[in-house]
Amino acid sequence: MTEGPEKPSREQVAMMEVGATRISPRLARIMAISFIGLIAAVPAIQHAADLSRNPAAWPECYGIFGAVGRTCRDARRGGGLAENIMSANARLTRELRDYENALEDESQVNKFLRPVTQLAIFKAGAGNKQVYVGNDGWLFYKPDVDYVTGRGFLEPPARPAAGKMPEPRQADPVRAIADFNDQLARRRIRLLVVPTPNKAMVHPEMFAHCWSARGCPPAGEGLENPSHDEFIRRLNRAGVPVFDPSAALREYRLAAGGRQAFLKGDSHWTAPAASAVAGALAEFIGGWNILRQALPAGFHADNEPVAGTGDLTRMLCLPDWCAAGHENGQPIVKSVVRDDKGGIWQPDKNADILLLGDSFSNIYSSPALGWGQAGGLAELLSLHLDRPVDSVLVNDNGAWATRQALVDELAAGSDRLAGKRLVIWQFAARELAAGDWRMIDLAGPLMPATPASDFYVPPKGKEETVTAAVAAVGPIPRPRNEPYDHITWVHLKAVNGVETSQALVYIWSMRNNRPVDAAGLKIGQTVRLQLRRWDEAPARIKTINRSRPYYEPLKSAGPCWGEMEK
Amino acid sequence: MVFSSHIFLFYFLPAGLLLYYLCPRRLKQAVLTILSYIFYGWANPLFALLMLATTLIDYIAGLAMTGQFRLSAWRRAVPPLPPGGARSAGQKAALICSVAANLAILGFFKYFNFAAENYNWFVTAAGISGLRLDSVMRVVLPLGISFYTFQSMSYAIDVYRGRAAAARNFADYACFVSMFPQLVAGPIIRFTEVAGQLKNRSHTFEKFARGTAFFAMGLAKKILLANPCGQVADAVFDAGSRGVAEAWAGAVAYSMQIYFDFSGYSDMAIGLGLMLGFVFPKNFDSPYLSRSITEFWRRWHISLSTWLKDYLYIPLGGNRKGAGRTYANIAIVMLLGGLWHGAAWTFLIWGAMHGALLMLERTGGKKGFWSRLPAPAATACTFVFVSLTWVFFRSPDLISAMQYLGNMFGLGGEQQGSALLGGIILRPYYLASLGAACCVTWLAPQTWDFTRTLTAPKAALAGLLVLISEAILSIQGYNPFIYFIF
């Protein structure tokens, strides 16, 4: 940093540089026109596609003007000036982000380029934002790997990066689990916690070639987050027993020389590995002697072959032919658990065991995950114990979602804890580092028998078709970013033309990594929906990830399940 | 909005170019300003109002300093103040208002949270936790605020010094502050550099073609080199601990990420400027070829280092007031330069390390350690030192930075899971990206040189790079610009 003699200014140097550009006039024209052609081709193709789909409507890209117009109109309604500006700004920011995401996700050029490019990148050993590629085409969920490589989850979090706000979440799993345990203990129910190891923990050798060369534990011994042992110690001190499936998975793998315990293109375990864990869990519970004496229920299982596409493979958006063949390394055979009458296993609300579980419990049980049904962790536990089991399963957010689902049921008057002696709380281990461990009150307020009168709910046992205007839509995940199907909330106004009538409706937002129904809704749009009461929605729907409204009056409104009228 | 996004590349840019070239010459500044406000307000529309407020303050201050408020003189150009001449109290007040307003805005939005955090730490350490400000608000950092406040300040100071004529036309001035190609991540342009171009600039196919070549190179640097290197760097830096090899790989990957991210952005900014008829000066001059830290700062983020030199180092006395004062000035400039990058102790340490080495080099002079090394060794040593300092720049806090540095030298223990990092780094895609980044850094010509003579094969290469970048962009969720948050 010195003061030198007068030199030409940087601007003068740049001017001289640009003035000295050597290019033929013809090439200059070709380059300029080609560049403009290249960047204009994408919207031109999109216009053509949009118009061929619906010649009467403006192409999607002009939707931005509607969004800005709606925000400006709404900004003039009620409230103080500052409040109106802030809320309009928040809404416009969201509208702009959604618009940009939709433009990118629905781009015809991107839809064409994405599978081909992803295949090339995949062959070169890279995945996408959420998926890592391991050895021999094995796929790993990035948050799972981060859990193992990251800092201990009980250590204080690092300072948030510049420009990012700290997350206001309760991040201490021990506090939340101990509190849940205390609440259950007051009802004379024991809690058993089952933090489920992920693929990177069980199959590190399929992720890193250098694994055995580093003097690390050989394949089959697994990995843990640095806080794992301390976590177990703290839970034990708080009187909460823990069943760690790692040992069962290790034994399962060692029994046959490093057998595969996880699916190649999915973030979950194989059916036999799930069965091994269920067997070990049943043995663990059997030693406690806390369950009621009961006669064998007569559960039995048939084996059936199953073919599916893994959640991670779907997130990669590989070409269909490539994705379909990704699990071909090994035929997958799963159990189908049946009751003594030969019927498909069903959760039993009168059982003395309740399983709260996430997608590790749901796989092979919920058809939405694509690997068949009646062979999940609850079914297999039932089979091994030969007694009925009740279950509340939600695919993701195991730290919070299943406890909340339980509270929802309690609030709606369905006491799933009645008669229970044991609650098994299964969640993915990565939740310990990144989960939402908010405290939940099991004795929360009961939902009113009749919801607020201005929130429309169909009569019991009836399905009704309504017409209404969309007032707000909950968060919608972007394809390739979330492994599971998703349901979001929609706030409807002017239901069936009654200006004061509103409704809170849950509808699909993503299925098979494709945006659906709610993803296409615009604020102010008129929709026709088939509604039924949420408590009468199909059981499989309740296992799907669901975004909930976070503000009043929606938070306490009686919800419906809705399906868009085709 | 970022340059390497679907909406910018395929909607904003073609529509913007179309509007710009279709509108009459006298409206071009206004159209460019409106486009720039849309570009900036896209992330958060309220931020555009903040920028408008800054712009108005400095515009009025400029006119106040030159006493040119009379409506009768509205069409006449404002003459610059006599350089070095005496200034009235009113002129001084106008300058103070402008600089104070800019620093206040920057200080509040950028440093409020940092100040509150440190205050809380201090009162807790002093045992008076009751005085903590836990419930105080947290401030959201507007994008690129450090860039445009520095740009605005330089305008007011230059007008005061008589180096620039105040802008009479608000559209001209607003266009200078908000011009979207360089708005959120530089290069930091001075009014004197573009005042003439705002009035009169040429639009030629040659300029446009070179602009497309610059843009293609910048886009490729960002998408094909910076982003994959960033994925490796993120995995290693976010790990709880890492082995020696992984730690070095992560540090080198981050060195490459930040260079290609920022120089790629600058190339795109220069290219877009050329497409709109503007010529912006060079911002990077192959910094990793530097043989010393002094040289590094002549080549890295040139628009910032010259800004700091002209508006801070020289006014402080530069090297004219003895050795002690020179070292103190270097220390002040580098510490403030560090803080300019971010409100955290890590940035301060980063600036301090660079400042310390600049002072050491100055002490050693031509007989110093660096000067005696053979050229390749000096380049290597400089790169290693710069990479070590980037560890502070990238780490979320001081403890993490110290732990990372320890891991680079085999200290601090290694957790089992860190062996998985090899599974991320040792993939052909990432190895190839890192290798290509190194080759481009040390073997390839820089963009200015590459585009000086444009031939058909070079044009084809530029087109191919845009196509490949477009394809990668279609699957890439990871696309941050590091300098956006500064």
* Radius of gyration of CA atoms of chain B, rounded to a whole number: 23 Å
Q: What is the total tally of β strands of chain B?
A: 0
The chain-level structural class of chain A is alpha/beta
Shape of chain A: globular
Largest sheet of chain B: none
Estimated helix fraction of chain B: 55-70%
**Count of DSSP-assigned helices of chain B:** 20
Tell me about the biggest sheet of chain A?
Answer: 5 strands, mixed, barrel
Query: Separation of termini of chain B?
Result: 15 Å
Return the average pLDDT of chain B rounded to an integer.
90
* Percentage of residues in DSSP E strands of chain B: under 5%
Q: Segments of chain B where pLDDT lies below 50 for 5+ residues?
A: none
Q: Strands of the biggest beta sheet of chain A: in what spatial order?
A: 9-10-11-15-13
The coarse silhouette of chain B is globular
Describe this structure in words.
- By secondary structure, chain A is of the alpha/beta class.
- Among the domains of chain A are: 40-49 and 61-106; 173-203 and 229-434, no CATH class; 464-564.
- Chain A is 34% helix and 15% strand.
- Chain A has 17 helices and 15 strands.
- Chain A has helices at 10-19, 25-53, 63-75, 81-105, 108-123, 142-149, 173-185, 199-202, 228-237, 246-255, 271-286, 311-316, 320-324, 359-362, 377-385, 401-411, 431-434; strands at 131-133, 139-141, 190-196, 300-305, 333-338, 353-357, 390-393, 422-428, 464-473, 486-493, 502-511, 514-515, 526-533, 545-546, 559-564.
- In chain A, helix 3 (63-75) runs antiparallel to helix 4.
- The N and C termini of chain A lie far apart (70 Å).
- The relative contact order of chain A is 0.09.
- Chain B is an all-alpha fold.
- Chain B folds into two domains: 6-201, no CATH class; 207-291 and 373-485, no CATH class.
- Helices cover 67% and strands 0% of the residues of chain B.
- Chain B is built from 20 helices and no strands.
- In chain B, helix 8 (205-238) crosses helix 18.
- The longest helix of chain B is centred in the first third of the chain and has 37 residues, at 89-125.
- Chain B is globular, with a radius of gyration of 23 Å.
- Chain B starts with 5 loop residues before the first helix and ends in a 13-residue tail after the last helix.
- Classes of the chains: A alpha/beta (566), B mainly alpha (486).
- The interface between A and B is large, with 92 and 105 residues.
